[in-house]
UniProtKB/TrEMBL annotation:
Gene from which this protein is expressed: dapA_2
Organism phylogeny: Bacteria, Pseudomonadati, Planctomycetota, Planctomycetia, Planctomycetales
BP terms from Gene Ontology: diaminopimelate biosynthetic process; lysine biosynthetic process via diaminopimelate
Enzyme class at the top of the EC tree: lyase
InterPro entries assigned to the protein according to its UniProt record, in alphabetical order: Aldolase_TIM (IPR013785), DapA (IPR005263), DapA-like (IPR002220), Schiff_base-form_aldolases_AS (IPR020625)
Name this polypeptide is given: 4-hydroxy-tetrahydrodipicolinate synthase
Organism: Fuerstiella marisgermanici
Cited SUPFAM superfamilies: Aldolase
Amino acid sequence: MSRRGEMFSGLSVALVTPMNADGSLNEAMLRKLVDMHVDAGTNCLVPVGTTGESPTLTHAEHDQVINIVCEQAAGRIKVMAGTGSNCTAEAIRMTKNAKDAGADGSLQVAPYYNKPTQEGFFQHFKAIAEAVDIPVVVYNIPGRSAKNIEPDTICRMAEACSNVVAVKDATGTIDQASQILAASDLTVLSGDDSMTLPLMSIGGSGVISVAGNIVPKDVLALVAAFQVGDIAKAQEWHHKLFPLCRDMLGLSTNPIPVKAAMSLIGMACGPVRLPMTELTDAELASLKTTLKNYGLI
């Protein structure tokens, strides 16, 4: 089956937001990261998602990061801008800015904290899709948003909105993704690095990756191997990446560990903003061991 969001197949990287020591935006490093991913062959960048610390950026900074990434990308790499909010009007405003900046699509997280009904989810995403005519990727992450967007609701969105093209599935359940893939032509992307291969095995098209911030070529290799039917090679990459993803990302709340890892491998992107806090000494020692075991330091 041809899937409507195949433009976002492969590796999308949930980009960190680089910051200076004083907590301000590090524009130079942000531009450097875009260039690095162009060189690595990453298919798409996703600025200002969870990994980009969207909850603690001001609205002006949010727009600024997206504008910089789109400008630096300059058509060399796709940009799926994180423009979701638990306020529908604000999500529309940010998505309009992203379209004007040249983004190829928008990532729309499930409204968090206010816990909409399924009808509320439907009306929220429908309002955004109708207001801004760029591709919309629905981001379902119940662990952070406190409520699941049910598969029937997602499929209803697909029927009502032609520019709802894909789902970033961070539910941790293969059943949910299977139901969406069976009942719609939506593209499904893994929202958890360790679930990339399992999701692709049932018809998923790739991943929006956190680990891709530090090992984009390795994540790409996994996806590419599966895409050409080399299942054994894809499994090999999965088993190589799994301990890194488990032991790094499991240390603390994302993006605390990946930002720390980037500093340790010479890609310093600065501190995280409160209420996020840095790794403890014990956690940092564990992270160093994980990175050493992988061969990164």
